[in-house]
Amino acid sequence: MRVAMIGTGYVGLVSGACFADFGHEVTCIDKDEGKIARLNEGQMPIYEPGLDVLVARNVEAGRLSFAVDGREAIGAADAVFIAVGTPSRRGDGYADLSFVYAAAEEVASLIDGFTVVVTKSTVPVGTGDEIEGILRRARPDAQFAVVSNPEFLREGAAIEDFKRPDRVVVGLEDERARPVMAELYRPLNLNETPILWTRRRSSELIKYAANAFLAMKITFINEIADLCEAVDADVQQVARGIGLDKRIGPKFLHAGPGYGGSCFPKDTLALVRTAQDAKAPLSLVEATARANDARKRAMAGKVAKALAGELAGKTIGVLGLTFKPNTDDMRDAPSLEIVPALQAMGAKVQAYDPEGHEARQMLRGVDFKAGPYEALEGADCAVIITEWDEFRALDLERVREVMRRPLMVDLRNVYKPEELRPRGFTYVSVGRP
Ligand code: UDX
Fold first, then answer.
1. Looking at 18, 28, 228, 263, which residue is catalytic?
2. Binding site membership of 151 for ligand 1 (Cβ less than 6 Å)
3. Ligand 1, atom 28: nearest CA belongs to which residue?
4. Exposed, middle or buried, 104 (CB in 10 Å: 0-12/13-18/19+)?
5. Does the beta carbon of 259 lie inside 6 Å of ligand 1?
6. CB 207 less than 6 A from any atom of ligand 1
7. CA–CA separation, 188 vs 182, rounded Å?
8. Closest residue (by CA) to atom 26 of ligand 1?
9. Measured from the CB, is residue 257 less than 6 Å from ligand 1?
10. Residue nearest to atom 14 of ligand 1 (CA)
11. What's the CA-to-centroid distance between 209 and ligand 1, angstroms?
12. Residue 258's closest CA among 228, 230, 220?
């Protein structure tokens, strides 16, 4: 199949490279000339494990190419994917669809022959109808079908998630699209991946409902963690105890500093807006978003408490700044709330993150260091905000020697109290006695 992928962000680039690896002929299109030039030289715009090798292999095989001008690829495509950003609209939380609609206009002017136009971007219910309207008005003559095919890719594990998904969701209103979509995902038949065929609106909603449910699950265990601290129970044991119940399941029950990233914060807000507009409000999702915001802010208070409320003149060594490990993404990362709050209470912050280079532009007054031990040098308190692998096996003797005093606040429960305390550390974690 011939595929044109509009947008070489996180989702477009991973999806395009994976479709090429399935054997399809893919052109990834982006208006950003610099980005396309760098991709043509083999430089990835994001950090995602395995992506550089996957891209190189498929470019080499002639199945994957990059272009600024989409004319040729869109004209020739059997399927055109729209994989552009849908950020939160400033101030009101609605999804900003301007990039999606601009892409639809472009597609309308270029399609030739029957073409399936697929939204991969996360878009509110009814956006498929709008796209269909744009295409129909611009090209009353054209033959096309508009399909919803949401992504469920986790950053840091996106290639695995694309190639071995729990399910593929395809929402359509026009049966002519079905064989095209089935052919695109045919390689997944080998491992018997379920393909769920739905109406287009249901598919659009599945994406938001899935993200909202996961965000709610995390927020639930975070609140249980607070309760554990108050009543001297252990959240890890509680999570395991409830997770073994197959109806609940063990995943997304890891307590921490609150969820961040490119999806959960913006998608929960957008879903809340959709529900309010439809006069079917989602009070659980509203409460989730509120609790998560409050939690990120509260984490600085936890550090202050560990230092007996005295942060003025203290040095805090922060390990990890990205919203989770194995990504360079800083969007809505808890560190963006925690670090400035520590500074506001008078602390000096020195920090290290293996990939969070953007933090240098986003966090003011932080002393960025080249490694974990450098970040902890002379510190009164170590704070683990992101659970990168390299923080899991720190040389604790060395940590104790470089720090001014051995105090650790572990917001990801990377360590166990029984490991740290015998080594002379004062150790504070999340939801554990
Ligand atoms: C998520 C969804 O998982 C994915 O399906 C969707 O397409 C995009 O959004 P992503 O944002 O990459 O993916 O990361 P994910 O691994 O889901 O983590 C999201 C946030 O929740 C992170 O901040 C993470 O630290 C936090 N989290 C996750 C927890 O605090 N506890 C958990 O148990 C799981």
1. 263
2. yes
3. 252
4. buried
5. yes
6. no
7. 10
8. 259
9. no
10. 154
11. 14
12. 220
Distance of CA 177 to the CA centre of its chain: 29
Express each pLDDT in 120-170 by its tens digit: 999 999 999 999 999 999 999 999 999 999 999 999 999 999 999 999 999
pLDDT tens digits, residue range 211-232? 999 999 999 999 999 999 999 9
What pTM did the predictor assign?
0.95
* pLDDT over 90 (residue 191): no
For residue 262, the CA-to-ligand 1 centroid distance in Å is: 9
CA separation for the pair 141, 13 (Å, rounded): 31
Q: Which ligand 1 atom is at minimum distance from the Cα of 264?
A: 9
The secondary structure element, H or E, covering residue 304 is helix 283-306
d(CA 85, CA 262): 10
* Pairing mode, strands 115-119 and 79-82: parallel
**How far does Cα 242 stand from its chain's mean position?**
26
Which CATH number, 3.40.50.720, 3.10.120.10, 2.30.29.30, 3.10.410.10, labels domain 2-198? 3.40.50.720
Ligand 1: nearest atom to the Cα of 327: 12
Residue 228 designated active-site: no
| CATH class entry, domain 208-289 | mainly alpha
Q: Where are the domains of the chain?
A: 2-198, 208-289
